[in-house]
Amino acid sequence: MTTITVLLLEDPTKSEVDVTVRLRDLADLPDLMLQPIVTPDHFDPTIRWVVTTDMLDPSRYLNGGELVLTGLMWRTGPADSQTFVRAVSKAGVSALAASDGGVVPDDLVAACREHGLPLFRVPADIAFATVTESVVRQLSTARASDLSLVLDRHRRLVASAGPGGGLGPLLDMVSSDLGMKCWVVTSSGRVLAGSDGPPDTEALAQEFMTAARLPKFSREHRVSIFPVDGEASPRVVDWFVAFESDWQTWDAPRISLAGQLASIVAVERSRADDRRTGSAILAQEFVKSIVGGALPTDIVAQMGIIGLDVETRYAAIAAATSGETVRLGELRPLLGEIVAPLDITVATVDGEAIALIDAAADRTEAVRSAVRALMPGLAGSGISIGVSAPAAPGDLRSAIEEARYGRRLAERRGGDCAVVGHDELATLTILLANVPDDVRRMFTARLLAPLTEYDAQHHTDLIATLSVYLDTNGAWTRCAEHLHMHVNSVRYRIARIEELTGRDLSRLEDRIEFYLALRLR
Prior knowledge:
Layout: E1 3-6, H1 23-26, E2 35-38, E3 49-53, E4 66-70, H2 78-90, E5 95-98, H3 106-115, E6 119-121, H4 128-159, H5 167-178, E7 182-186, E8 191-194, H6 201-210, E9 216-218, E10 223-227, E11 239-243, H7 252-291, H8 296-306, E12 314-321, H9 331-339, E13 344-349, E14 352-358, H10 364-374, E15 383-387, H11 396-413, E16 417-421, H12 429-432, H13 437-458, H14 462-471, H15 476-483, H16 487-501, H17 508-520
Parallel strand pairs: 3-4, 4-5, 5-6, 15-16
Antiparallel strand pairs: 1-3, 2-6, 7-8, 7-11, 9-10, 10-11, 12-14, 12-15, 13-14
Helix pairs in contact: 2-3, 4-5, 4-7, 7-8, 13-17, 14-15, 14-16, 15-16
């Protein structure tokens, strides 16, 4: 035996909506033709949701206010009717609708009269699914009407000169008035506002960024996802509203209201962006002055003006984009999401977004981790990011330059988004990052062109062999193990490389030049 519950209120104990669907309305629904059998005097309860059950005692699945539908499969004799009615009455259900091929046994009628429980007969040709759908439609329409008034009231608030009601109170109203938990979530899965006990929002964020179309219902998490900005911005810098319900089962008014809620969230977000505009202008001038060569004493003085703590250490982050999916102007919110919830100061200088963040410790791995979480939304973005070591205020110029060096190296690596931290800049790669492109092309072509041409013509892997050979410091056996081939085959390939290039890989100088050429590609 199983219980199937259709809930309009995901947490019914918290709802205080005076829904207009009442007991007397059931008999008036023309498509159901429910026949009232037991109708207690002066008892017209509100129906808040529908439950279908074939369990003898379904009370642990009930919260009160349900219309219970049953096909009487639990009944093996007259005594079972008393047990069943006692259980559902104690749970506080509003009414019972029963039928076994259109028949309601007398012992069930007697038990309902004894406990004062309203009872309806469901005609034999009416499916329980039809009853459920009809009542749910009435409940949804009633609640949507109530919520429309709530949203209209909030819309007037956010459109006025004042700051509005805020996201927290708004979502509280939605959860309470519509009986549906909901949350505002960022692209990395941070919950900005909403009900208690959110689902796995990081996994939902992944679905949000990769969905072919929105809104989308996540079957795994039983949550519907609505974008906030829609097509106005890439999803990786957008927010979304998550509803704990399947939007595909909603009627048109409820779907419309979900879209209106997302629009109100977008207005609130714009207000927050506007409040940051003044500080952003100061940050722009501050970072530009550092890049322009401001003295350490001047830097410390400016920090006091824009509200940065002069006793704190800061890390610099440089970011740029070469793709089409994320534009330069969208790097500011993207960086904000990557380093959240750290305080952030962002400016745009020479096509790069430069951010300064509080950094008592190294933030490189945290940035890499955040980028991995956002990677589904970064396809085709061509973003490159460099992260400096933490620095004192007087060393901010060096920190910014370190981040910019790292970003240039990350750009050469290609891909959707590459991150280079200061830990990688302690080697000769910091020098390679500044090699002019024409010098880079000439140097690599002179050493590697004969090998790439040979590989293309003969379908060989001399370049790959050379790379592994150098990485294993010329150890024949280790190189052969990495390449999964015999040592003699490795020796043959190295000999062919030396023949084609005129170099001797037993010489340190030639090995270094090949190593640099491979890194400069």
